[in-house]
């Protein structure tokens, strides 16, 4: 039985024989390949299959003669209807929601009038994993997403969270496919960093100082440091041994006698230095000049979790050409909103020899590609979102994937927003002030009714690495705004001119030294380049219409919570 | 000129007109698409192209009439030969190694006897980024990999590091492709975790306690806490205001008078409580009962960087079916070897309803897939490795992708190694002791001359989550051993039986409570499952034949070093 574990046969010879003689691998079939779109029921009927999954609902019929199980294996939203006869297995052990089964049988055409195209008549039950209904935390009643956040280890068994997991997987693969097709190379930028991309931003610190201090504490308890009198005694011994040597020398003693005496002196000195070292051990976090001594930390300096891989990925754009990074990023902000996470994933492409125009081009193509991909690969899950969370989710994907994005300068955006009379904004619109989310959404949802790219922002509200335009007032930055979430992408052409960059760093009040390496990219064979960042979870919110970012990442981290 | 930045036209209307009227996008061509394998020289000759890249070598010819530049853009190992006439651009500005250029011209057939199939005659030089040869750290002389580690921001411009970057990118894409083709979903397991996969292992701590303490220090300096006498004065005020209220009440004063007096009392109390709060502020790391008070840390408890996503990805295997994670993992070990990094990437698939046999099947198929992928997609870079680092690198890929892996039990492996007479091992071979690297390499390189999977290890030397075999002595673990690096993959069938897992955790001396969620996966609808982990950098070492792991990750992190 393929479900069996491989046990150790008594001898080595038998072990090899056992493994090579195992019958041909028998695979379990994914339910998606049985009842997914594109499979014709007629091809399936009569086929023997083995499936495994979890019971969504189970009910006995025919006075206990057989049971109907709705079985889901996570490969798709739909369940497979499974029929088990009471002669095959004790039915009561199969019925509870959450029970796992591995079963074999034949696919049959259900009776007329039944919505399923095919059902499975089971003749072998290979494995069962029970789920006690009195303690199983996910009964079949509909549970709120908020409730499910307390069960991140079990919630992927629910329709919503499993649909999001599949959408997430598809968007990740679409991302790699898009960039590969466009000649971008994937680069792993560092997670632990000693650079700070924005020159600000709350960062998590990475350290071993606490565990080192704990170890030292334990060590000092088990083996207490010497007392001052022990040190004094050791010093006295060194003095005595020194005097012995001097004495022997003055007596012109034999070489052997003198070197024996010198050896004793050396040992006394070593012993003293060891005692002094231990005497100087201080419990707790190492300090120097009243501050934490980070030279004693793992990396010999303060280290943090990355807030963006952009600066580092630029090193590879300036060598390999088009590149992108796709990895976790971090913010230690005490935000309790539905739009912020302490740990989230970001995609950051960087286009060598590319200007702002190229940047906008790839940003638009990428977002369109993702939307088309979901329509092509995830329609069933998207229909579930439309039915349960956001009526317009599919229409939005269609709109974004087909309509050209509107492009307007920041200056134009401000003019348009200032002229708005049918809505009162909470935040003032004024040239030189960043657009608020309400403004961004008004531009894309009300004025243009499609995605909008706003470009050329005032330099004061944007980061130091963005390229200064010839007007000396704006930088070559751009934001992609989409309905439902507002800003989806932020990007810019990077300042590739050495002197201009030095000035921007200085103007931002930042020290130059940490950016030496970044400046060297401009000093040696500098090239125009541009790039952008897309928050992966924000893209999923946009696609699915869900409201809380904690529901679109498998293991959400936010102030006070880091389950598992 | 496409190289120009987009500047802000004076009015909003003009801005839109400007952008929509831009001529059709002109792309730079990758050098790989001009001189890569599979392009026929005849199709290229006569084509106009624009290319950008960095000068590897430049030399003037014909008494300064023209220059030959070897141009590389990172898209492939090979350089494009570029010819610039002195009438087109001042040649001396183009010649130095490291100079960047963006040029346009026509592809020509070179004279007979020249090795290049095609060369570029430049008629426009669009952009130049100089590189001063007196300060550029990467001259054309061959540099050691060790030297290059001090220039992680520039080293991807060298042949070796750019070849590795391309191999890395290809292996990452091959990984996603393999698992997708086999029905695995990609899951992002958490980077910040409150679980410890191995129940041991040195972990980095993630904290905001230092920055919080710094903020508090600054705040206390700017706004010193109240003195004891201030507190006393505030207490006295509360007392007085209380007496006032009592006095007015005893006088049966008017409601207005009394409530005015109560208001004053309330204010005095508030003021006191604020003072007391500030009085109790202690600078430094928050302490409780003589220990660090982690309830005041960002997540309300101690948090760490993950050492493995396995335990967490199991939650999704027990819901979605086959899944895998591919992300960064961390070890805070003070290892200064050529095989260890503090930050590295790992691929961890998990097979639902899969036993050890399935685990070995997917491990073998995956490694074979990666090897074939490199032969199909990276031959030029692999040939470079063969020429410069490891003569057998390509042969090794061919061997591994074609030969079935040998499978032997741990017991058999020990028997075979004990019988070895032609080699003296440094480490003793004995049943119950883990195999050392020298044993692993001997098995794969000498005895079997192909990859070997060793399975069923003594339970004492393996982790608690590995499934206990019926012999009660071994667990269903397996390691894949390959020539050159030894262990490439470690995996196991997971213990899916609740009681057996409780016993294994307890036997390992671990507390049960942190594993509550992990145990619940076994309590509710448990299924057999298995998985493995492949260290991504180790795979690259295996493929390329390089010796030091610090050279196969873009930004290596190890004790004392975390550049950028």
Automatic annotation (TrEMBL), chains A, B:
Domain WHEP-TRS residue range list: 230-286
GO biological process, one term: asparaginyl-tRNA aminoacylation
Transmembrane intervals: none
Record's keyword annotation contains Aminoacyl-tRNA synthetase: yes
Pfam families per the UniProt record, alphabetical: tRNA-synt_2, tRNA_anti-codon
This protein's UniProt keywords: Aminoacyl-tRNA synthetase, ATP-binding, Ligase, Nucleotide-binding, Protein biosynthesis
GO MF annotations, alphabetized: asparagine-tRNA ligase activity; ATP binding; nucleic acid binding
PROSITE patterns, per the entry: AA_TRNA_LIGASE_II, WHEP_TRS_2
Catalytic activity: tRNA(Asn) + L-asparagine + ATP = L-asparaginyl-tRNA(Asn) + AMP + diphosphate + H(+)
EC number: 6.1.1.22
Annotated ranges, domain Aminoacyl-transfer RNA synthetases class-II family profile: 323-554
Coiled-coil portions: none
Listed InterPro entries: Aa-tRNA-synt_II, aa-tRNA-synth_II, aa-tRNA-synth_II/BPL/LPL, Asn-tRNA-ligase, Asp/Asn-tRNA-synth_IIb, NA-bd_OB-fold, NA-bd_OB_tRNA, WHEP-TRS_dom
An example Gene Ontology CC term for this record: mitochondrion
PANTHER family according to UniProt: ASPARAGINE--TRNA LIGASE, CYTOPLASMIC 1-RELATED, ASPARTYL/LYSYL-TRNA SYNTHETASE
Similarity-based family: Belongs to the class-II aminoacyl-tRNA synthetase family.
Protein name: asparagine--tRNA ligase
